[in-house]
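#struct-queue
[09:14] JT: dropping the first one here, sequence first, then the structure tokens:
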Amino acid sequence: MDFLTILGLAAATITTISFLPQMLKTWRTKSAKDVSLITLITFIIGVFLWLVYGIYLQALPIILANSVTLVFNCIILWLKIRYR
């Protein structure tokens, strides 16, 4: 693996795990009142588009990061709707 791929994977890992605390907190407290629905939906659309872009480029860091981020944020969206 070259340096740029490693750099991309490191950036992808850090930005992706940043959503883990929000997801876990929402799950534990069963409250998503402080999560903006509009922001969440907009972000999910953007992440999905990044994923499509990464697949098109066959860029592993973009594909991995956005796949996991999309799953985490879809869970947060599901929790937001469930705990209304």
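[09:21] JT: and here's the second one, same format:
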Amino acid sequence: MLEKLYKFLNNETEQRVCKDITEQACKHVPKNYFIILLSNVFTKLGDTLSNPKTVLTWLMSYVNAPVFLISLIVPIRESGSMVPQIFIASYINKHSTRKWFWVIGALIQFLAIASIGFIVLNFKNETAGYLIILAVIVFSLARSLSSLTSKGIVGKTIPKTRRGRLKGYTVSVSGILVLAAGLLIMYKSKSNATIDFYSYLIFFAALTWLISAIIYSRIKEFPNDLDEDSKDKSNFISKLKLLKTDTNFRNFVIARSLLLCSALTAPYYVILAQKYVGKESYLLGLFIIAKGVASIISSPFWGKLADKSSKNVMAIAVLIASVLGIIIFIIISYFETIRTINWIYPLSFFILGIAHGGVRLGRKTYIVDMAKGNQRTDYVSVSNTIIGLILLVTGGLSALVSLLSIEIVILILSIFGLIGAYRSYLLPNVEK
């Protein structure tokens, strides 16, 4: 049954494609394909239900946490999961099988998110804010472990020209579940959702990581051939030298750093909605629904296109996000009547969700296809660490500028996105 469904989803009518994986791994592709898909569906649902750009921002505001703490959530969560990777990559490279690193990371994420649910039930104001920040830091560090190992495992178990579709189907299926969650929040908003409801939502989000860890442990992973010289090649400085010696990798990191507008602008759309429309809880439901529908509609398309040219997916997606940001800047700055229309912001978030999904899927597929073996761990760790540091700087600067003008932040980030679209288009194709 899995074999037939795998062939149907990937349009395989003849011999199975096993490009860039071993003969042993080829025999287990359908089973691993659906294990990865199902486990990632649960983590993506958990990500949405505890998203710092929407749900955590809403929660911290609900418990009256200081605004300066709320502004730190997105940079800490995103950069905290990236910066440590270059330091732990060497240790991971010494192990021939790595799925258990992912499982351990998922279990710690389960505990970290569950603690947030406990915090909002028992604490308020500044105390709640600091405790949530601490939980987000723990979550991010655990996420770095799972993120670093996941791409290597996909590279070992799923063949080229099938990885983009896997990511696309994963996001699409999780989008359906996200849509259901958004509808539930919309329904509860009619009866004034309480802090108990939001905390239970967080507890459910935490549970998704526990379920995912159990599923992921069933992956059939075969050992890597370890590099005998790994001790000489895996130190911190030698990894950073990749940026100097590997031109294609360096250009990818530059392009990726310019794609951050799709992630960094998202919370500002929520803030604009609260500023010009209000803080009614139905708006949170609308934002979550918009994200879910965007995933359902766009992910299969992005996945198929990524298997043909992942760098084009990056370029097209960030171009959409950038043009949207410029349009929003114009509306907020010059059209007072339009900026108070409540559906403008969920609609914009929907379009941004389509774009950000393409950016994420494109860059993840590109780096997996560009590298081979242990090189994947090095590429992922270096690029994520660099991007994490850039996120800390740009996130901090954006928070400062936003005190003066939120729409200016969106405009500046969108201009960088236009440059990122051009740099992504110049990258070489890596799918062959």
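[09:30] RK: nice, looked through the second one.
[09:31] RK: The chain is about 80% helix and 0% strand.
[09:31] JT: good to know. Residues 228-233 have pLDDT under 50 and may be disordered.
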